[in-house]
Amino acid sequence: MSLTAAARAPRTVEKEAPARAPRRQLQPVTGTPKRRKPKLAYALVALAGAMAIGAAQIGLSLAITQDSFLLASLTSQQHDLDLRTDALQEDLTGLSSPQALATGAASLGMVVAGTPSYLRLSDGAVFGQGTGAGGMSTIDPNGAGAVGNALLQAPVAETTTDDAADATAGQTQQELPPAITDGLPSPTTR
């Protein structure tokens, strides 16, 4: 027979009987079995773990609470510093205004010059009027036409006690808004 003929021939397989499991025999319980002694080490590890978790939660809670108080304090300080910065910026704006500069120049004896003069460096020729400014200025920064500047403050060191009392009385009157008698102020137009 050839190999293909042997492959086509039916094979007979012998079936084996399944092995039987041994039969269990039940017996009545005559006494209680011995109880196992609980292991103390496992209980201590579980208790220590629970206590560690609780301590960690309390520690984190306190740290977060402390950080929130610190954050609130720093926020308050930042707000105060912002207000102080705004006040100093306002003072700087008032002191660097043209009116304050003109007042300071006038108090130092400086006067407004007339027509400008120019000097040519190559030969030293002067173009323009060529004379110095006169002793009197034509512009008075504190005169009748001056507009009051609320950002400018009078120096405190120059006032005496009597002047300070008068200035305090004047300041309380100046701080009030002007009385409106004829309605709201508006510009005059044609």
Could you give a quick summary of the protein structure above?
The protein has helices at residues 3-8, 40-95, 98-107, 161-175; strands spanning 118-119, 126-127.
What does this protein structure show overall?
This protein is an all-alpha fold. It is 46% helix and 2% strand. The chain has four helices and two strands, in the order H-H-H-E-E-H. The protein has helices spanning 3-8, 40-95, 98-107, 161-175, and strands at 118-119, 126-127. The protein has a two-stranded antiparallel ribbon with strand order 1-2. Strand 1 (118-119) and strand 2 form a beta hairpin. The longest helix is centred in the middle third of the chain and has 56 residues, at 40-95. It is elongated, with a radius of gyration of 51 Å. The termini are far apart. Mean pLDDT is 76; it is low at 155-159.
Order of helices and strands: HHHEEH
Q: What is the helix content?
A: 40-55%
Topology, number of strands: 2
Lateral arrangement of strands in the main beta sheet: 1-2
Beta-sheet strand percentage? under 5%
- Shape designation: elongated
Distance between the termini: 134 Å
- In DSSP terms (H or I, runs of 4 or more residues), the helix count works out at 4
Rounded to an integer, what's the Rg over CA atoms? 51 Å
